[in-house]
Write a structure and sequence with these properties.
The chain is an alpha/beta fold. The chain folds into 2 domains: 4-196, Alpha-Beta Complex (Spore Coat Polysaccharide Biosynthesis Protein SpsA, Chain A), CATH 3.90.550.10; 214-273. It has 7 helices and 20 strands. The protein has helices at 36-45, 63-70, 85-92, 94-97, 159-162, 172-182, 201-211; strands at 4-9, 30-31, 34-35, 55-59, 75-78, 101-106, 110-113, 134-140, 149-157, 186-190, 193-196, 217-218, 223-224, 227-233, 238-239, 242-248, 253-254, 259-261, 263-266, 270-273. The protein has a 7-stranded mixed sheet, with helices on both faces. Strand 2 and strand 3 form a beta hairpin. Helix 3 (85-92) packs across helix 6. The model has no long low-confidence stretch (mean pLDDT 93).
Amino acid sequence: MRGVCAVILAAGEGRRLRPLTEHVPKALCPIGNVPLLDRALQRVGALGFDNPGNLAVNACYLGGQVVAHVGGRARVEVEPGDPLGTAGGLGNLRQWIDGRAVLVGNADAYLHSTVHDAGADIAALLEDWDGATVRLLGVPGPPKEFGAHRFAGFSLGGGGGVAPLKAEPADLVRAVWRPAERAARLEVVEYPGTYLDTGTPADYLRANLHAVPDGSLVAAGAEVTGVLDRAVIGAGAVVAGSVTRGVVWPGGIVAAGEMLTDGIRVGRELTVPAH
């Protein structure tokens, strides 16, 4: 869309998801064997934001992995030092944004709609937009953050709201959204589906199982000789034991006689319980 760019926020440390995020940034954690960041890029790409001229990704924690993963699909801005937050990240991209309106998405937002295909399900943020209001994607609360809704990972705002932002720690809630709400310029667009923020091991597992509603998902190259019941198995994984309501990351191993239940397996020994 002319006069609009898109930014995917992928700089966070994912502290609540540790130890899963000790060696992999949260944005690259897989949901249904697809990295969260790729899900976000595919979603905005379906709306035409698909090149470094109109799509950017911010990175910080383990930023080199994000740079390598994105490649030439988008501009990647690596923040120095600690993450700048959602508003600071946009402030750091202010020169690239160059006065355009911005569609902003959180890389860790898991969205799934049965009404629309990926991309089309957030298109309502852009439809008939007057360029002056701030729009948030929302799902019914609790918690009721904005009216009867809670934020669902994507927002849209005019270039005028970005122009004052600086490359310093700040968040969009305080810097942009609450001021717009007080000025009666905030509009919540209800999302027709499921939203999960994947911030904890429990929600991360929940999102994986939601992405595979029936049975299990086994990536190409995985070796499974054990028993699966609602499981997501990554590429190169070896499962000789049993996995029930669990996720095995790429290259992970569940040995014969082992039972992985309600948890995430990384490598041979790391198991993160989903509670």
